[in-house]
Structure formats: structure tokens, C-alpha cells
């Protein structure tokens, strides 16, 4: 049985851990609220621009090359519960359906690289882009590499894999295609519209803008998922630390009471011995 001194040290340690996790929970909750609002607000504009691109494309593109460029987006840091595990499991399931030999991966940050290496994927490039503060210049470099690969015929499609934000408790791995553009079947009955100055020029300007917005949207979704998962993980850690602290305090009190009882018994025993 641990000594009273040892129990006091453990209680103090657990309380310090609880303070740290509580502070991290508060910080993640503040960032979570802002990132959720940004991701949900941006989702509307991303969908609208995709609809416009669908109208300009007109006809579906026949994909012959089975190879795929996948941009993998992951949280910047750990301590976010099972989010990284969810991304890895979802990615593995998707890879199994596509075929690992057909996938080339571009990793957005260090955590994405770790996930890709765990699955032994073909990593073509690594970009240091923070999901909390994405660098537009580096995002442009990613888009340029994807566009070049498609033009050179190295791949048939370009996709982004990320953790889509559903709600506070749910973040799911999903993929979205950013190249080539595919017409939206729900817009097939749209009335006639006028494209100026011409369809080719509009398309050439629309492609990089739409691709960048789609990539930006996936990064925002991942940021919202990261902060939500971290807030919940830190709340769970704080609750567990509080439970352990209560348990250790109870054990310390029992140990202390037993020690006091033993001392009283010794005093009484010594008194009885002196009387006899």
C-alpha cells in the first residue's frame, strides 16, 4: 500500500494534469466555435462555385487513366481523440477499394505524412500547410502540381481526402474530386445562360479558383473537426483526472485515518501497560 506522502504527490500531480487539460479544453472550445462557423459558412460558397463550374463544363469527361492524385489533409497536432485513427481507417478502406498501386499522395502536413507512411502509400510531395492558418501561396503550389499531373496524363483524377465536420461528436473521413470537373446532374434542367467573354476564357479562370476554394474548404472542415475532437478529448481527460483525484483523496484519508487509529491504540495500550 502506498504511503501517505506518495499519495499526496500523486494527488498533486493529477490535479496539475486536470488544470492543463481544462485549459486546453477551454482553448479548443473557443477555436472550435470559430472554425465551425467558418467551415459551415464557406461550405455554401464552395458548393455554389462547383455548380457554376458544372454549368460551364457542360458534358462529363471520360476518365481512362485509373491513377489518382490524392491530397491528404490531417490535423496539425495530436491530442484530438480518435480523429487521426478515424482518418487512417477511412483512408485504408478507400485505398482498398481503389487499389494502392493506383494512388499517389500529396501530404498537407506532418500528421498526414505519418498516416500515409503507416499505410505504405506512394508519397509524391509534402507541404507544410497549417489547417488552422492555411497558406494561400502553398495551396497554389499544390493546385499547380495537380493540374500539371492531369495535363501530362500521369493521373486521371485529383481528389482530396479529409475529415469532414458533421457535428461535435462526429467527424468522418471522406474524399471529394477537384479535377476534372464533372457536370452536376441536378442542374441539367437549368435555363439558358450567357457566358462572357467566352466559355474557354471563363473556364481557364474558373478552374484554379474553384480548385483552390475546394481545397480551402476541406482544410476548414479538417480544422473544425480537429478542434471539436480536441475539445471533447480534453473534456474526457479532465473528467477522468477529477475522478482519479477523488479516488486518491479517499485513499489518502483512509490511510491517514488508519495511521491515527494505530497511534491512538498504541497510546491506550501503553497506558494500560503502565497501570498494570
Keywords for this structure?
276 residues, alpha/beta
- The second-level CATH architecture is 3-Layer(aba) Sandwich
Instruction: Count structural domains.
Output: 1
* Name of the CATH homologous superfamily: ATP synthase, F1 complex, gamma subunit
The topology string of helices and strands comes to HEHEHEHEEH
Strand arrangement across the biggest beta sheet = 3-2-1-4-5
Structural class: alpha/beta
The number of helical segments is 5
The count of β-strands is 5
For this entry, what is the oligomeric state of its chains? single chain
- State the end-to-end distance: 35 Å
- Outline the low-pLDDT stretches: 187-191
CATH topology: Pyruvate Kinase, Chain: A, domain 1
CATH uppermost class: Alpha Beta
How would you characterize the largest beta sheet?
5 strands, mixed
Helix content: 55-70%
Task: Report the radius of gyration as a whole number of Å.
Answer: 28 Å
Strand content: 5-15%
Molecular shape = elongated
Task: State mean pLDDT (0 to 100 scale).
Answer: 81
Topology:
Layout (H helix, E strand, L loop, with lengths): L3 H54 L10 E5 L10 H16 L4 E5 L2 H9 L3 E5 L9 H16 L5 E9 L5 E9 L19 H77 L1
Parallel strand pairs: 1-2, 1-4, 2-3
Antiparallel strand pairs: 4-5
Helix pairs in contact: 1-5, 4-5
Structure description:
There is one protein chain. The protein is of the alpha/beta class and 276 residues long. It has one domain (19-233): ATP synthase, F1 complex, gamma subunit (Pyruvate Kinase, Chain: A, domain 1). Helices cover 62% and strands 12% of the residues. Strands 3-2-1-4-5 form a five-stranded mixed β-sheet, sandwiched between helices. α1 runs antiparallel to α5 and α4 (136-151) packs across α5. The radius of gyration is 28 Å and the shape is elongated. The protein starts with a helix and ends with a helix. The model is unreliable at 187-191 (pLDDT under 50).
